[in-house]
Write a structure and sequence with these properties.
- The complex is a heterodimer.
- Chain A is mainly alpha-helical.
- Chain A is 65% helix and 6% strand.
- In chain A, helix 1 crosses helix 10, helix 8 packs antiparallel against helix 12 and helix 8 packs antiparallel against helix 14.
- Chain A starts with a helix and ends in a 5-residue tail after the last helix.
- In chain A, 32% of the residues are buried.
- In chain B, helix 3 packs parallel to helix 5 and helix 4 packs antiparallel against helix 5.
- Chain B starts with a strand and ends with a helix.
- Classes of the chains: A mainly alpha, B alpha/beta.
- At the A-B interface, helix 1 and helix 9 of A face helix 2 and helix 3 of B.
Chain lengths: 373, 300
């Protein structure tokens, strides 16, 4: 026990003396939390919008004024011809072009039917989709008003049946993206820091040769591993703590659930990550290798965690893969507990899976760690 | 017996590092392994310190088998790897304290063992190990290897890259430790250090060539050795190398160490040959072979 305590003490000393590591541990997470949480928004605002009005009628102006009124669209200009509009799109000056055909108003009044052409820059597929929805919403709205105008005098007997839906967003009433991004980014930070540092740590001893010296001592395998990893377990939990404080104080994210439950889950979760880190360091010779391999796993874990893209929209085989992604469960648990106030029973499936991962990963890591070569 | 090695072999993928190596080190003996880089010295050290498992053969350290009783061995040996391998970001004192603690002892308990060495680095005890000079680092590493009072000490090229004065001091310390009853196995590529050991083993390409005391090992020199001198060193070596009866030619200080193929070597004949090559002030004398000559001859 005395030996274990001494190794942990030594480890902390080294962490706090490492000029490169210290900023990574304490400064980087907060910069990331502050920047990413503010920047990683799914709202699309200030869409660069332009139009070609070939009709110049009351209706066409009315339609355009609806776009002007929308807070999502920023009406840049109007183009006299389609050719000029396309050139502007090519230059990236505009992202959406609405073309109103000639006789738009006349057709609507006479035929009760008219075509509109919308061109959207789809270089970024995700935002193009959202822009399409916004455009359609405005046009439909316009359509409805026109219908009322056009059909009222002659067809007074046809009462339009209106179904009004008022969505209510539970657990995040204003659909504030920060409320669900902050817990997710916090998850990333805890994972990244603990994985990178633990992965690099034992390799570092290999690289500078101290592992050789340690191996000739009567120190036990378990003492060494626990002594090496325990400091990072503590670090992970302290990053969570500071992250939660930032979430509450700066982003005002509601913390509905039980804090102890979050810590309980995180403390198990970090064991999984430390196991992965140790496993990686057993198969690498230099810190550089360890870093690259950690990055490889990190990128896959992040993109398949459901943090940026919903897991439900992934193909079936990809969804199966995400079942083995510990970050996915951490993101789920954090959002459930923080925003919804889920209790222990609610997150039990995630807890059990995480415990299982922890056992498997640490088992593999300890098994592959050898004092002799 | 402190260390006994019998028929140890070890090969890596395509290199055979050790071929059927056998030797033993007596209690309280200072035993030197002399050989060039890549001779297999470090592999042997790693096997004896339980870091590497041999392909075949048996080895005992302090009465324990290196495979079956590796735990006991780790308690009673001190190992100083060739590469400096202490924590560079911990201070001198912290390093020493760390190694004392993981061996379940304290600096105080065995201070008498390291006192002579530690007093020299004590003024820097709050300095980080990474900021020490080469000689200081080696002294600290030796302290760390000694702090648990080992029965056997393994030193893998402890003086490589250390200045001559520190090297001399280091060997004086080894001599003192030996008097305290610690058996020492040391490897070195320097022949002058070999003379300071009780017994030495020549090792090359994973094979032991000869084992004897430094005084007696020169008797294994197979030929008669001559000191040949002349005014032009370069020309002398070139000429000797082309001499038809030449067996070996090595520059040695201001002379060239020369051996002849024939048993009835005639120095006048050689003198004439060298004169014909345009050399002056030629001298040919019988010389005492050194450890280096012996090694070179045996390694040929």
């Amino acid at each position: 026990m005395k030996i274990l305590g001494f190794i942990i003490q030594k480890e902390f000393k080294q962490i706090f003396r490492n000029k490169g590591m210290l900023p990574i541990i304490f400064v980087m997470p907060f910069i990331q939390l502050l920047i990413l949480s503010n920047a990683a928004t799914f709202d699309i605002k200030n869409i660069k919008f332009s139009y070609i009005d070939n009709d110049h009628s009351t209706y066409s102006r009315e339609l355009i004024s609806k776009f002007e009124a929308s807070k999502y669209f920023h009406v840049i200009t109007d183009f006299p011809s389609e050719k000029k509009a396309k050139l502007a799109m090519l230059n990236g000056d505009v992202n959406v072009i609405l073309e109103i055909p000639k006789y738009f108003e006349r057709d609507l009044q006479k035929e009760k039917y008219a075509n509109l052409s919308v061109t959207i820059n789809a270089i970024d597929g995700a935002s193009a989709g959202v822009e399409n929805v916004y455009v359609n919403q405005i046009i439909q709205n316009f359509n409805k008003n026109i219908q009322v105008e056009l059909f009222q005098p002659s067809n007074s007997n046809i009462a339009s049946v209106d179904i009004l839906t008022i969505p209510s967003f539970w657990y995040n009433k204003t659909l504030n993206y920060k409320t669900y991004m902050v817990p997710g980014i916090l998850v990333l930070l805890v994972t990244m820091i603990t994985l990178f540092l633990s992965g690099m740590n034992i390799v570092r001893e290999k690289e500078i040769g101290t592992l050789e010296q340690i191996n000739v001592t009567p120190i036990k395998k378990s003492q060494f591993i626990v002594g090496k990893l325990f400091p990072f377990w503590v670090l992970g939990l302290s990053i969570l703590t500071v992250g939660l404080i930032i979430a509450k104080v700066i982003f005002n994210v509601p913390i509905v659930g039980n804090l102890m439950l979050m810590y309980l889950y995180t403390s198990i979760y970090i064991l999984v990550i430390l196991g992965i880190g140790l496993f990686i360091s057993n198969f690498t010779e230099t810190q550089q290798q360890a870093m690259f391999i950690s990055w490889f796993f990190m990128v896959i874990f992040i993109l398949m965690s459901g943090l940026f893209t919903p897991i439900e929209s992934m193909p079936n085989w990809a969804q199966r893969i995400t079942d083995f992604n510990p970050i996915k469960y951490f993101v789920e648990v954090m959002r459930m507990v923080m925003l919804k106030g889920s209790g222990f029973i609610d997150i039990l499936p995630q807890v059990l899976k995480t415990v299982l991962f922890a056992l498997i990963m640490n088992g593999l890591a300890v098994w592959s760690y050898k004092k002799t070569t | 017996m402190s260390i006994s090695v019998s028929n140890i072999s070890k090969s890596y993928k395509n290199v055979q590092a050790l071929k059927d190596v056998s030797f033993h080190v007596n209690e309280g003996e200072l035993f030197g392994l002399i050989g060039p880089d890549g001779a297999g010295k470090t592999s042997l050290f790693r096997i004896l310190t339980t870091l590497l498992i041999a392909d075949s053969g048996k080895a005992n350290v302090a009465g324990y088998d290196v495979v079956d009783d590796f735990k006991e061995i780790r308690n009673c040996v001190g190992y100083m790897p060739g590469k400096f391998s202490l924590y560079q970001d911990l201070t001198v004192e912290e390093n020493l304290n760390f190694f004392a603690t993981i061996f379940g002892t304290s600096i105080k308990e065995n201070y008498h063992l390291i006192k002579d060495i530690y007093v020299q680095i004590e003024p820097f005890k709050n300095r980080r190990a990474g900021k020490l000079s080469g000689g200081m680092k080696q002294k600290l590493a030796l302290c760390c290897a000694l702090i648990h009072k080992p029965k056997v000490l393994f030193l893998d090229e402890p003086t490589t890259g250390v200045d001559p004065v520190s090297r001399k001091e280091f060997w004086d310390m080894l001599k003192r430790l030996q008097q305290k009853g610690i058996s020492i196995l040391v490897s070195t590529p320097y022949m002058d250090e070999a003379a300071l050991c009780d017994r030495i083993a020549f090792i090359q390409n994973g094979e032991i060539l000869e084992i004897d005391s430094p005084q007696d090992i020169v008797k294994h020199f197979p030929k008669k050795l001559y000191n040949v001198g002349a005014d032009n060193m370069y020309k002398l070596i070139e000429s000797l190398k082309h001499y038809e009866h030449m067996h070996s030619v090595f520059p040695f200080g201001e002379f060239v160490h020369y051996t002849d193929k024939r048993n009835d070597f005639n120095s006048i004949e050689l003198n004439e040959y060298l004169t014909s090559k345009g050399l002056n002030q030629i001298s040919v004398e019988v010389a005492q072979p050194t450890i280096e000559d012996t090694f070179m001859a045996l390694a040929k």
